[in-house]
Design a protein that fits this description.
The structure is a homodimer. By secondary structure, chain A is an alpha+beta fold. Chain A is built from 5 helices and 10 strands. In chain A, strands 1, 2, 3, 4, 5, 6, 7, 8, 9 and 10 form a 10-stranded mixed β-sheet that branches. In chain A, β2 and β3 form a beta hairpin.
C-alpha cells in the first residue's frame, strides 16, 4: 500500500470545519470525495488538525492509503480540477507507510489576525477579527509569558465529548506583531486541545482590554477562578499556517 | 443644501457593479437605500467611477446632497450599522456645495493583482486573477511604455452604448511590482473609458505571454490591427484604490 501526504489550503468560511459530519459541508468531506472520484476506491483520510467551522488553513496536512499507482503530480492536478474553489491541494507526496499526519506532527503554527481600525475592511473581513476597541498591546505581550512553555491549560478546557484530555501542553512561542491596522498573533506549539488557540486569544484580548489583570492569569489557567474565565475568540480570525514533521 | 462626500470600500464579488440597475444588487443601490433609511428623504448619489460587476474598491468616492443637519461622524456610524458586510463607508465629510465626485476627480489609482503560483490560494482567490502560465515580466514592463503618457486608446474602445467617447487619455504611471507569488500592476491616470483598465491589463498580459509582440502594440492601440486585439482581463483582480481631488 502507498501512503500519500497532502498539504491543503482552504477558506473556512463556508465549511462546517474539517471533520466529516453527516449532511453538512466539511473540508475533509470534499477532499475525501474528490480523491474517491479520481481513484475509484474508498479511502480513510487522517489530518493533523480538526479545524473548527470558520477556521482557515494554508498548510493543513492529511494522509491516506491507496493501491493506485497514480503519479503524485497527476493526482495534484486532478484533485485541484475536481475540488471546489474554496479548497486547494498545495502538494501531494508519497511518504513512508508509517507516516501519520496526527501522531507524527512535531508542531503547528497558527496565526490569528485582529483588525484594529475603526472601520472594517470588506475585502479582508472574512480573515480577521474586527476588534475596534482599545487594546494595550504591551499588556498582551506581557500576558503571552503566562501562556508560553509547558503550561497546564486546565482552566481553558472546553468539553469536547472526550474524557481524560491532557491539559498540559507545550507552547514554544507566541509572537505579537503590530502591523499597521492589524495585530497578528503567531502561536507555535506541539499540539493543542479543543479550541485552545481561540481560548488563548480570548484570554490575551481580555488582558489587553483590561477585563482581566495579568496577576489573575495563573488562577484562570488552573481553573481555580472559573468566574474570571474569558471568551473564546471568533473562528474567522484563525488560520492553520503550517504543520511541522 | 449640504454636500456630503463619502469614501467607500467594497468587496465586488457579490455585486452587479456600482451603478444602480433594476432588480439586481449594486453597491450604489445599497448605499443609496442606507442613506435614505437614515435621512428619510430621497437622494441622488454621484460617484467617481462606475466600477463593473466583480471589481473591488478601497477608495471609491461618492457625493450627495441633503438638508439634514446630521453630524458627519454620526452618519458614518449609522451607515456602517445599516450597510451589509461587503460594503463599508470609510469616511463621511461635508464639502463645499460645488464638489462633484466625477468631474472634479484629478486622477485615480487602480490596482490589478495577478497570482502567478502553480496552485491558487483559496483565501485570496476573489481578489486576484490566478494566471498560472509563464509570463515574461520584462516584456510587460516594456509594454507599459506604450500605455503611459497621453495615449489614444481607440483600438481598446468597447461599445458602452455612449457615442463620441474621448479615446485619448492621460496615464501618468504604470508600476509593476513582482512580489513573491503576485504580479501587482498599479495604474494611475486622470480618467478611464469603459473597461479600459482591464483592457490595458489584457494587453500587458498578451505582451508577457508572447501572444503579441511589442512592435504590434501601436497598431493595436490605434485600432488598425483589430484581429490582434487582446482580451479584457477578468474583473476580480481589479481594485479601485483611491480617487484624487
Amino acid at each position: 500500500m502507498r501512503k500519500i501526504k497532502l498539504i491543503i489550503a482552504y477558506d473556512g468560511t463556508d465549511f462546517h470545519g474539517w471533520q466529516i459530519q453527516p449532511e453538512v459541508r466539511t473540508v475533509a468531506g470534499e477532499i475525501k470525495s474528490a480523491i474517491e472520484k479520481i481513484l475509484r476506491h474508498e479511502i480513510h483520510l487522517t489530518a493533523a488538525s480538526r479545524t473548527d467551522a470558520g477556521v482557515h488553513a494554508l498548510g493543513q496536512t492529511a494522509d491516506f492509503q491507496t493501491d493506485n499507482s497514480i503519479e503524485a503530480g497527476k493526482l495534484l492536478l486532478a484533485l485541484n480540477g475536481v475540488l471546489p474553489d474554496d479548497v486547494a491541494v498545495k502538494s501531494v507526496e508519497e511518504v513512508s507507510e508509517d507516516f501519520h499526519s496526527t501522531h507524527q506532527s512535531k508542531g503547528k503554527h497558527y496565526r490569528y489576525v485582529i483588525r484594529l481600525s475603526g472601520i472594517d475592511d470588506p475585502l479582508s473581513r472574512k480573515y480577521h477579527w474586527w476588534y475596534h476597541h482599545k487594546l494595550d498591546v504591551e499588556k498582551i505581550i506581557d500576558a503571552t509569558k503566562f501562556l508560553t512553555g509547558t503550561v497546564d491549560f486546565k482552566g481553558l478546557e472546553i468539553n469536547s465529548g472526550k474524557s481524560d484530555v491532557e491539559t498540559v501542553r507545550e507552547i514554544s512561542e507566541i509572537k505579537i506583531t503590530n502591523d499597521a491596522d492589524d495585530l497578528i498573533i503567531d502561536i507555535f506549539g506541539k499540539s493543542f486541545m479543543y479550541k485552545l488557540v481561540r481560548s488563548m486569544i480570548g484570554l490575551l484580548i481580555a488582558a489587553g482590554n483590561g477585563k482581566i489583570q495579568l496577576e489573575e492569569i495563573p488562577e484562570i489557567l488552573s481553573g481555580k477562578n472559573e468566574h474570571r474565565r474569558t471568551d473564546v475568540a471568533p473562528p474567522h480570525g484563525l488560520t492553520l499556517v503550517e504543520v511541522f514533521y
